[in-house]
């Protein structure tokens, strides 16, 4: 056990290292499962009429052909008492033909049949008691198989014996794992492989153990029919993205698309993010019943083939959070797709439509031969460095990028204009303002005549000697944060490309900060709170921490005497919204950075915990993550930098995220 944890800790250091766990490799759910389920619309009151009409609608609307095949009958289908022989049975008033017949109907439509049960003594609160599967796992698995099910969603209510089996126990004394393993074993003993959907609301960090038992695991508590659920869910998903892979999918919960609680841009954001994070795509709206049919707008969101393609992509890699601009209200996610493609999403948290810009280097790219702007229904070619488009209120810019080049490499033919012996490169990106970017010039060939090149960036010109046989030469140059830098190179030999690397910068560990108020420095076990090994907690508006940081802002060509520099903050947050998820819990925490007495810049960080919040090392409060942020107001000489939480209303009560350290790219 210890060595597994140590291994995981080391895996979580690398940004792209997959944290894939030993998994149940039975051929089920090689791509995220897709379907429809009754809960989000019908709550715990499914009945035969609505199940049949929604199943039929999956076919009539062509959704089955797009991949939506599981029809899940969620809570409310069973009764309090088992049959005299101990078998579970359905509510005969609500399902007069019985579950085998309903299952047959679903199968006859070419669809798959999913049922719901619970790893406790009763299913989740429905008003009336209904039997759970705890202590009946083998018999219930056999019963489900006799009904020819294809999927089991397994919930977690009334499961904790030592607290008297309450409806929910979010901090149980024992892990839910064993109860899920009992059902997994019982299912494995049956003749047919079924999709096992683990739904214990993310308790005890199931990403570390659920893949060996089932195919999907819920990462958090239920979605609620409100826009704010999207932000909370993405904050919970952020530290789990590396755990997604064939046969093991983080479940962001059934979708609210089609339930008339979200606007069309909001539904596009919801659907896009679930898709690119490789969540199961389970429709939770009423497709068709006696009273309702899904709107054309929602149907068109759910039917978008590009987005479904991102979800079902053979690579099975989740997108991950790249940058978040909390004050400006937007953020960038991206991830790889098969065929060398990349998917990127820019979420507009603001309640108004506006133009947003994706800087390709923020997702590791410099250019794209083709960019498909999915929701704007546009395809662009030869996109360089940046892409700007309008995004609706709470909407998303969702892009598929093909034929891409790596960030920092600029080919002359794409980025330069040549005039005589002058080659001028345009659209050069820098994420920080610094005199110390490294530029490497690659020549198109060898030429005996070349001796030196003249390189000009802003007001700075450098003469760089070139050895006769050199194919490339490097120097440092000033660049300003942003995407409109230019460099002109005078050279008699033509230039093939240039490469630009950020300054390596300086790391400031939390241990070099001065503690204010009741903020506290805590040491973590070896391998945790990376890269420092300790962290500062209990930071709020009054209890801030500060450091004096030297900077050099000369020679950047900037008009002003202060400049912007890029920081990467190592933070920790494991404040998981469980009970508060029904309300305003967001699974986020703020941190503010204020420089030289300037306005605090806010970074609202998602969860970072990658271990059990109940039993794991540091209870998940020792797992750090990084996010970058641009801070303006650097001046030459010493700068006073304050980390706090200077935004929340009740300042003395609200703690920010824990702070591990920061990397300043100066
Ligand atoms: C089935 O559920 C629908 C939607 O909740 C409801 O309108 C209908 O009356 C129910 N039918 C029966 C037979 O209970
Ligand atoms: C079946 O469901 C109906 C509607 O929810 C409920 O009134 C009835 O008590 C249920 N029957 C049993 C045996 O639980
Ligand atoms: C229990 O009884 C039901 C109803 O008669 C029957 O369908 C089922 O097969 C029985 N289960 C077992 C395990 O005998
Ligand atoms: C941006 O900053 C990161 C540091 O996180 C660096 O690795 C990357 O190369 C930078 N990109 C550019 C284009 O400056
Ligand atoms: C570029 O050409 C100009 C004249 O057009 C010449 O004066 C200059 O020396 C050349 N520079 C280099 C680096 O070859
Ligand atoms: C510039 O960067 C190099 C390596 O990246 C570093 O050794 C040097 O100290 C930096 N210089 C300044 C002035 O920051
Ligand atoms: C973070 O700050 C923003 C702006 O003040 C606030 O709306 C939000 O609720 C804060 N989040 C948390 C988790 O305190």
TrEMBL record:
Annotated keywords: Carbohydrate metabolism, Disulfide bond, Glycoprotein, Glycosidase, Hydrolase, Polysaccharide degradation, Secreted, Signal
GO molecular function, one term: alpha-galactosidase activity
Xref: SUPFAM superfamilies: (Trans)glycosidases, Glycosyl hydrolase domain
Enzyme class: hydrolase
Regions annotated as coiled coil: none
InterPro entries referenced in this protein's UniProt entry, alphabetically: Aldolase_TIM, GH, Glyco_hydro_27, Glyco_hydro_b, Melibiase_C
Main location: secreted
Pfam families found in the cross-reference section: Melibiase_2, Melibiase_C
Gene Ontology biological process: polysaccharide catabolic process
Cellular localization per UniProt: Secreted
Protein name: Alpha-galactosidase
Organism: Penicillium nalgiovense
């Amino acid at each position: 056990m210890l060595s597994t944890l140590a291994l995981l800790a080391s895996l979580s250091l690398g940004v792209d290292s997959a944290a894939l766990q030993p998994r149940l490799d039975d051929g089920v759910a090689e791509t995220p499962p897709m379907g429809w389920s009754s809960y989000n619309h019908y709550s715990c009151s499914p009945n035969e009429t609505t199940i049949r009409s929604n199943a039929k609608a999956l076919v009539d609307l062509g959704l089955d052909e797009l991949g939506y095949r599981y029809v899940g009958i969620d809570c409310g289908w069973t009764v309090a008492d088992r049959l005299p022989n101990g078998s579970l049975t359905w509510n005969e008033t609500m399902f007069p033909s019985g579950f085998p017949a309903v299952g047959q109907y679903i199968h006859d439509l070419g669809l798959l049949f999913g049922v719901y049960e619970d790893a406790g003594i009763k299913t989740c609160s429905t008003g009336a008691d209904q039997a759970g599967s705890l202590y009946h796992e083998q018999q219930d698995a056999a019963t489900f198989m006799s009904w020819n099910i294809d999927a089991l969603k397994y919930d977690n209510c009334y499961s904790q014996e030592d607290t008297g089996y309450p409806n929910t126990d979010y901090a149980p004394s024992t892990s839910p794992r064993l109860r899920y393993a009992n059902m997994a074993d019982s299912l494995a003993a049956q003749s047919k492989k079924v999709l096992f959907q683990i739904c214990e609301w993310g308790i005890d960090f199931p990403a570390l153990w659920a893949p060996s038992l089932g195919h999907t695991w819920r990462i958090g508590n239920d979605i609620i029919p409100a826009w704010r659920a999207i932000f909370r869910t993405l904050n919970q998903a952020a530290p789990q993205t590396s755990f997604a892979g064939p046969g093991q999918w983080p479940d962001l919960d059934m979708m609210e698309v089609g339930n008339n609680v979200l606007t069309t841009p909001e539904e596009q954001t919801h659907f896009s993010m679930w898709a690119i994070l490789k969540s199961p795509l389970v429709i939770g709206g009423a497709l068709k019943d006696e009273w309702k049919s899904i709107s054309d707008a929602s149907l068109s969101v759910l039917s978008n083939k590009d987005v479904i393609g991102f979800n079902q992509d053979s690579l099975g890699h989740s997108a991950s959070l790249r940058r978040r601009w909390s004050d400006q209200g937007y953020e960038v996610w991206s991830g790889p797709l098969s065929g060398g493609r990349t998917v990127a999403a820019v979420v507009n948290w603001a309640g108004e439509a506006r133009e947003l810009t994706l800087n390709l280097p923020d997702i590791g790219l410099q250019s794209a031969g083709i960019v498909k702007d999915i929701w704007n229904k546009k395809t662009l070619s030869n996109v360089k460095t940046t892409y700007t488009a309008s995004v609706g209120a709470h909407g998303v810019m969702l892009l598929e990028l093909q034929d891409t080049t790596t960030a920092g490499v600029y080919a002359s033919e794409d980025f330069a204009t040549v005039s005589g012996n002058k080659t001028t490169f345009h659209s050069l990106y820098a994420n920080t303002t610094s005199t110390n970017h490294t530029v490497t010039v690659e020549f198109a060939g060898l030429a005996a005549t070349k001796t030196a090149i003249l390189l000009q960036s802003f007001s700075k010109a450098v003469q760089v000697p070139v050895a006769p046989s050199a194919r490339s030469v490097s120097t440092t140059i000033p660049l300003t944060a942003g995407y409109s830098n230019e460099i002109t190179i005078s050279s008699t030999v033509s230039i093939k490309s240039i490469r630009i690397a950020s300054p390596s910068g300086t790391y400031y560990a939390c241990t070099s900060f001065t503690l204010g108020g009741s903020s506290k420095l805590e040491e973590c076990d070896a391998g945790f709170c990376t890269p420092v090994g300790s962290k500062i907690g209990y930071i709020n508006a009054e209890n801030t921490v500060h450091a004096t940081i030297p900077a050099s802002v000369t020679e950047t060509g900037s008009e002003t005497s202060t400049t912007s520099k890029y920081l990467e903050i190592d933070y920790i947050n494991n404040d998981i919204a469980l009970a508060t998820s029904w309300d305003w819990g967001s699974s986020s925490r703020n941190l503010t950075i204020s420089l030289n007495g300037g306005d605090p810049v806010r970074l609202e960080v998602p969860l970072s915990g990658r271990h059990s919040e109940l039993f794991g090392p540091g209870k998940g409060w020792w797992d750090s993550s990084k996010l970058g942020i641009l801070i303006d107001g650097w001046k030459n000489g010493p700068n006073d930098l304050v980390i706090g939480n200077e935004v929340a209303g009740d300042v003395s009560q609200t703690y920010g995220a824990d702070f591990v350290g920061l990397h300043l790219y100066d």
